[in-house]
Amino acid sequence: MASATAAPGVSGEALSPLGQRLRVLLSSERVVGDLRGYFGIGMPPSKATFTGNRFEHLAGGGDRPEIADRITAEDLVALQTLSVTVPAPVALDILESPLGTRLSGLLHAIPRDIDMADADATVVADSSPADQAWHLLCEQYGVDWVIAGKLLARKRPRLLPVYDKVVRCALGRPRPSFWLALHAALSADDRALHRQLLALRQAAGVPETVSALRVCDVAVWMGHRAEGHACPR
After folding, report:
1. 101 C-beta neighbours (distance < 10 Å), count
2. pTM for the full model?
3. Mean pLDDT for the chain?
């Protein structure tokens, strides 16, 4: 297990505070087991505990080419596997009204086939299309920040992370933004933390269709809850 979870070449001096915190969490001996448990690896579907293990794969995923630039009813159902729901009036606006068109235009400008660790920081910076989509949902339509982030993560799972109250409790509120701080941590030291996430995914037997970002989210979420923190999902 040590060889699967170790991150050769990662030095504390090379990492930001967020990166150092992630290195500690991802190096825990329980991470591989947590990933296997969350994604139901080796379990029959009837025994799977976490509905979130269907978030990526429901209806073929939210980033498949034919629907990558529009939000579908299936995407809205996928959010429910992570225990959140888009308010009905907003959901209807997304599916039937100009909001959906505006989001589609922004999604079209957000890269689909790239990992956060490989993307330029401008892709997740303030005023980027991704940032504009998040603010559109939160500020103009009153969608909770957790829900907005999860919806965008469904559409761009390799590039945009799930960031909820449990993950925030574990990793804090880095400045200038969580997206930029996580990008810096994952791309530092020749992408060492990103490579560690891929190694953890392989060690746990999690499908390659699950992004490194999602592996990170699940590992942090499971580990933080196991430490006894009563943070809501």
Report:
1. 10
2. 0.90
3. 91
